[in-house]
Amino acid sequence: WAKKDGRNRVAEFDAERHRTAVARFELSARMPHALDAGEFVVDYQPLVRLTDQRLVGVEALVRWEQPGGERIGPDVFIPIAEETGLIVPLGRWVLAEACRQAVRWREEHPGTQLFVSVNLAARQVREAGIVDDVTRVLADTGWPAHALQLELTESDLMGTTGEPLDALRDLAAMGVRIAIDDFGTGYSNLAYLRTLPVHALKLAGPFVTRPFAAIPEAGGERDRDEVDLEVLALLIELAHTLGLSVTAEVVETSLQLERLRKLGCDTGQGWYFAPPVPASAVPALLRGPVGPA
Ligand code: C2E
Ligand code: MG
Ligand code: MG
Ligand code: MG
Questions:
Q1: Is 254 strand, coil or helix?
Q2: What backbone torsions phi and psi does residue 203 show, to the nearest 5 degrees?
Q3: Of 231 and 13, which is predicted with more confidence?
Q4: Mean pLDDT, range 198-224, rounded to an integer
Q5: For the chain: N or C, fewer Cβ within 10 A?
Q6: What is the 9 CA–ligand 3 centroid distance (Å)?
Q7: DSSP output for 179-234
């Protein structure tokens, strides 16, 4: 910063920080009422089997629809809800809503084979009676445990020990699948992975798009793409060795799809197939291949 206007910049920066803090505070204050008022909605993003591009599951992704019509994304309000603790009732609501909706799809389209994947915040596993919550939702809705997947981020999962870990084991014993979300963004102890009750691994975007782009010298003289591809291949192989199924996040191009398919990756998710869509758009996706054939 130039000395001359340094003070101004600091003032501007403070003002901006202040605005952000106020906006966050307002959102956090409005959130409990918004939950009661039904302002949260769930969209669903297809999880697609790579061999034939059939829809095998959907991920529930929550959005906040303001009374004025403006939509706020989860990247904005989920961190706030995690801080205030509202994530516990909000997360419980998303779980119930997704299961209720999945039962409706199955009733309206008999024979539907679909699993529903719901994101769990660390706090839901740490503080709340998550096993009771899930048990109750499954009992109330009639959705089968084996068709439910719960996603925890790699960093949340790696820090899970004691009672929360027991809770995950109990959920797994009920038949619920546990997936590691955003895998590759943290620092997994791969040996430790084996001890966790995990069924699936969701490879974070960078592995799919451009792995290790931040390490220009990776591979030395060799083509960097070649090295990236080998790392991706090893990761998929490792996951399979551990008995995990692999989902690639952020599949955006046919080239990525082709590459992942060749490497034996099981499922994919991303704009190439479909963005998150409203519940009403899911039945049409059950019929044929999802995304460009
Ligand atoms: P996530 O669980 O990793 O979900 C995937 C995110 O990637 C979604 O963002 C999705 O819209 C986006 N995405 C999907 N395909 C593509 C693609 O091809 N390209 C790109 N660039 N992005 C793609 P979204 O819906 O904004 O959600 C963001 C995050 O918010 C989620 O990341 C998840 O961590 C959190 N979240 C959403 N719903 C819930 C919830 O009900 N509970 C909790 N605890 N967290 C949630
Ligand atoms: Mg997720
Ligand atoms: Mg993810
Ligand atoms: Mg995420």
A1: helix
A2: -70, 125
A3: 231
A4: 70
A5: C
A6: 36
A7: EEEEETSS---HHHHTTS---EEEE-HHHHS-TTTT-TTTTTTS-HHHHHHHHHHH
